[in-house]
Every structure is written in C-alpha cells, then in structure tokens.
Write a structure and sequence with these properties.
The complex is a heterodimer of chains A (266) and B (322). With 266 residues, chain A is of the alpha/beta class. Chain A has seven helices and ten strands. In chain A, the strands form two sheets. In chain A, strands 1-2-4-3-5-6-9-10 form an eight-stranded mixed beta sheet, with helices on both faces. Chain B is an alpha/beta fold and 322 residues long. The chains are: A alpha/beta (266), B alpha/beta (322). Chains A and B meet through strand 1, helix 1 and helix 4 of A and strand 2 and helix 11 of B.
Chain lengths: 266, 322
C-alpha cells in the first residue's frame, strides 16, 4: 500500500494505491470513488478492506479523496461536482501512470457512483460497480436533510439550543457537513435516472435497500441495451440514526463486489 | 500545501499517517509537535474532518502536527503479533514519535484525542516522558475496568433522578402516565440507598488510580486540557474522579497552570454541528497558542524547586488531601 499526493500542485489530491501480489498482477486497475459527507466517514474502512481484497485478485486499486474532503487539499469552498469529476479523471490517469495499467474499472458508492456513471463513457473503462448510486440529486439532498433532522431531533431533547452554523458560504448543514450553495445547486441538477448510458461497459448495480429501490432503474437500463448485473444485498446498517458517522463493514456487499470481479480476474 | 504521508513499521504491520511540518528545513522546525489520535473508529481525518482542519490551523500558528491511524482503524491493519489492542496502540504511538523525531526533529509531543483517542492520549501522557501535554475531548472510563463504567453510569442515573427528575413536571408526568422506565428508576434508587449506607469501593479505587496517573503527568510539568460537550458523561466522570474538592489535593500552582477544563455548550459527543466544531477548535487553538509559555514557566518552577530541594531527597509526588 502506498500513500501519495497527486494531481494539481495547487490543490493536490490524496490517494492510496494498493498493489496486487507480484505473481498475480495483471494490466488492470480499479479506482474507488467514495461517497460524500457522513457516508464518506462510514465507508472509509470498508473501502480500504474492499481495495485489499480486490488487490489480492490481481488488480491495482486506487482509493482517493475528493478536493476539499478527507486528506486531500482544500476546504468546503473547494468542493464542487465539476471539480470532483476532474478528480476522478485525474485519479484514473494517476493509476495508469503509477501502475501502467491499460484497462480501468470503477467502483463508486452513492455520489461516487453517480460520478462513475458519468465517467464510464471513456473507452478504457471496462466494468463499473454502482453501489447504491445517487440517481437524483434532489432526492439525495432531501434524504440527507431528513436524516439530519432525525439525528438532531434526538439531541435537541438534551441540547435545546443546538445552533446552525451561520455563514454566507453555506446553504445548510447536515450530519456534520456544511453544504456550500454552489455544490447544492450542482447536486440538485444531478438527474441520471433518465440519462443513464452504460451501453459499452458491464455494470454491477448493488442495491442495499429492502424494497429493491433500484430494480426499476436496472430494468430501464437493460431495455436500453446496457449490460447490467443487478444485485440486491440488503444492508440493515446502511443508516445509523444514533451515530451517523459510525464505521461499519458491510461484508455481504464487499463479498458481492469481489465475487463479481472474480469472474474475469486479470 | 506542505503535508507529507509517512509509513512506520510496527510489529508485523504498517502504520499510515500524515505529517504537517511548519518549516521547510528541519533545522528551523520547532521541536514540539501535536499528534492527533483517532476518535473511536473514525480514521485519521477525524469526525467531520476535524483533525484535518485542526492540523492545518495549528500549522498556521507555527505548530507542526501529525495524524495517523492506530491499529485496526482507517488505513492501518490490526497487528498480528497477539498483543492486546492497548499495547499495540502504545507501541505504535512510540514508534511514530521516534520516526517523527528522526525525520523532523520533534522531541516533545502534545497528544489530542476524542473519546477513545482521549483515553489513549491520557495513557501515553502518563507513560511517555516525551508527551508534554494532552488534550482530552469527551473522554471517559480511561483505563479503568468495567466495574467503574457500571458505577459511573449508575451514579449518573441516580443523580439525574434525585437531583433533576424529582423537580421536573415533565418527569412526573411521564412517571404518572407509566412512560418512565421503572426498572431504571428502581435501580437508581437502590444504588443511591446503597451508597448512603455502604459506599462502593469502586469510586475510591478509581480515584486512587486516576490520582496516580495525574501525578505522573503533572509532576513532570506536563499540562492537560479536558474539553467536554455539555452533558457528556465524561464530564460527570471527571467530576467524580477529580472533583473540585479533589483538585485541592494537587498544589494550587499545578491546578492553575497545568490543568484546564472547558465545557462546550450545545455540542454532542462527536461535535456534529459546525458551530460546536468551531467552538472546540477555538478552545484547542487558544490553549495550544499559550502552551509553550505555560510549559516553560511550569518547567522553570520545577527546576527552581529542584535546586532548592536537598540533594538526597526524592521528588515528592502530588498527593490528594483526604
């Protein structure tokens, strides 16, 4: 495992490259695009474990943090979907440079999956895992606000005057994350349900909901000619109203993803 | 941005961290570094990215900082040498300090931790002379056993029912409409009655242990900041372990110059609201800004006391008055 800063010198990204065992190393790499806000903290360890397991299969795996998040440079004002799309492209280029891989696969979770869908039009992308992708930005923001109200409602019984942070920079704050106005505007325009185009890649759609929320989207995509492997793996711990940044390992989902990549190991 | 990743081999695994140096050349780099430990199982970025923001703001004050993942957290794997997790963390912290000294010249460290990270900071501060300061956020239980945890929890419940719920209309309404937890109330009452007639030894045992640990830290001239969200159980525990009456047991100079307690109102355990995050950061940065002056003056006092003391006498540990 190697830690590295890469990308634009003024605003470098932080990433971790997982190497495959020398005897099984192939010419393929995987970039993991993380989720955002409280989901980022919850998923960090599971992304690390996933990267370890995928590397054992023979892939070079790169995890990275978006600008203004995690260990990467920048702060809240540097967060934007436009920049994060560039960050994903930069990470793919870095993986090619570091590992010399020709083919790249993507694994994205939540908003990371949305970015992967958009990036998958590149010809070097072969396979994409979409883990509970955010398909509609307005729904996503509404969900975050709802979770925040539920969480804060519990604490307001003790701390009645819990204050919102006052700043012109932010539209609102939720579950520990302040959302700048520009980022909110960008997320609101995210509507991939109707614009999905995954016809030249093989995609695995991981749906952790109990009510198969994403099955309809999978069917629409299949009809449009995409190669979709729909997997429902229920994750009862996907949300934690008591501690929204509690770390956990959704082992069943990690296994489903590694099994899917095992089919054609490099 | 001048931040550098580092990897430190510990046992049979590697520890992964980031260092935020202040100066470009090692010669002019300060010898004091703040190490930010993990908060619970959250990786080195800290809850809501608090550790990153803190490290970057410390550097702006001229104080270098480092963050790393302890065994089993974030990027660092669990060590496979069979050691207990506490011993793994202790040796990892020592190895990281050694690496930072070798690569950057840091010789003195202030440890910061929230919750479990605070427990670890307290433990390291008592054990390692290089640790000259500790900032403990919402820390409780320390290295005390489960008897203490149970005692502290019961004491908290008992205090709530005796001192608050008894005088609250809302609590009586819940009680009379059968919405209260009668089992909990019964246990709290039984605990309180037992404490009146036959006080548990757990509290005295815990106080003795805590006092011993505090003495180890304070007698070296190190400083501690306890920082709590209002209503956090850690604050209740500290009042039990080191209440105002108990503070008189340490010399007044030690208390004034070496121990600080700060409460942040309207904050939950992990400082979810940005308003409370900024409150915590402001207090930590203010304490760190005055750290060097405070530390040097404490050390000067210790040195002058040592000069006055007879040559054959051992340094006296701080004692609590009974």
């Amino acid at each position: 495992m190697k830690q590295l800063f890469f990308g634009p010198p003024a605003l470098p990204l932080f990433g971790i490259l997982h190497y495959p065992p020398a005897e099984s190393a192939g010419g393929e790499g995987i970039v993991i695009a993380p989720p955002f806000a409280n989901e980022y903290f919850r998923s960090y360890r599971s992304n690390k474990v996933l990267a370890d397991r995928l590397a054992k299969l023979g892939y070079f795996v790169l995890r990275f943090d978006y600008s203004g998040t995690g260990d990467s440079a920048g702060d809240d004002e540097d967060m934007s979907l436009v920049r994060w799309r560039e960050d994903l492209q930069t990470s793919m280029a870095q993986l090619q440079e570091e590992a010399g891989v020709e083919r790249i696969h993507l694994v994205g979770r939540r908003i990371g999956a949305a970015l992967c869908i958009e990036a998958s039009t590149k010809p070097e992308i072969q396979r994409v895992v979409l883990w509970d992708p955010v398909l509609n930005g307005r729904d996503y923001l509404a969900e975050i606000k709802e979770d925040h109200e539920e969480f804060i409602g519990m604490y307001r019984r003790v701390h009645r005057d819990m204050k919102e942070f006052q700043s012109d920079l932010y539209r609102f704050e939720a579950l520990g994350q302040c959302f700048p106005g520009d980022l909110v505007d960008e997320i609101e325009t995210l509507d991939l349900d109707s614009a999905l185009s995954l016809s030249h890649v093989r995609a695995c759609l991981i749906d952790s909901s109990e009510d198969q929320r994403l099955q309809a989207s999978a069917q629409v995509l299949e009809k449009a000619g995409a190669h979709i492997d729909y997997r429902q793996v229920v994750d009862p711990w996907a949300k934690d109203p008591v501690n929204p940044i509690r770390v956990y390992l959704p082992n069943a989902i990690l296994r489903a993803i590694t099994d899917w990549f095992k089919v054609e190991t490099p | 941005m001048r931040e550098f990743p580092f990897t430190c081999t510990s046992g049979f695994s590697e520890v992964f961290g980031i260092v935020h140096p202040f100066q470009e050349d090692r010669e002019s780099e300060p010898d004091l570094c703040v190490i930010i430990l993990n908060s619970g199982m959250t990786h080195r970025v800290g809850p809501h990215r608090l550790a990153v923001r803190l490290a970057r703001r410390l550097v702006k004050l001229g104080i270098p900082a480092a963050r790393f993942d302890l065994s089993g957290i974030g990027n660092t794997d669990v060590r496979k040498d069979g050691e207990s997790i506490k011993l793994q963390w202790l040796s990892q912290c020592r190895e990281v300090m050694a690496l930072l000294e070798e690569d950057y010249g840091y010789k003195r460290f202030v440890l910061i931790g929230l919750c479990v990270g605070g427990q670890a900071s307290f433990g390291f501060a008592a054990r390692d002379e290089r640790v000259v300061g500790a900032i403990l956020l919402n820390t409780r239980d320390y290295e005390l056993d489960t008897n203490w945890e149970k005692y502290a929890s019961m004491e908290r419940d008992a205090r709530f029912y005796w001192r608050r719920a008894t005088f609250r209309k809302h609590s009586w309404k819940r009680f009379l409409t059968g919405k209260s937890s009668f089992k909990k109330i019964g246990m709290a009452l039984a605990f309180q009655v037992r404490e009146w007639f036959r006080p548990s030894k757990t509290l005295n045992h815990a106080k003795d242990w805590f006092s011993g640990q505090m003495s180890k830290i304070l007698d070296r001239g190190s400083c501690i900041l306890f920082l709590f969200s209002k209503g956090d159980p850690g604050w209740d525990q500290l009042r039990l372990l080191l209440g105002q009456k108990e503070l008189t047991g340490y010399s007044s100079a030690q208390v004034e110059s070496q121990v600080s307690v700060q409460i942040i109102p309207d904050a939950d355990h992990t400082f979810t609201m940005r308003h409370s995050q900024e409150g915590a950061l402001t207090l930590i940065l203010a304490w760190m800004e005055g750290f060097e002056e405070r530390f040097q003056s404490v050390r000067k006092d210790y040195h002058s006391d040592a000069d006055k003391a007879p040559q054959d006498s051992d340094p006296q540990p701080a004692k609590r008055t009974q």
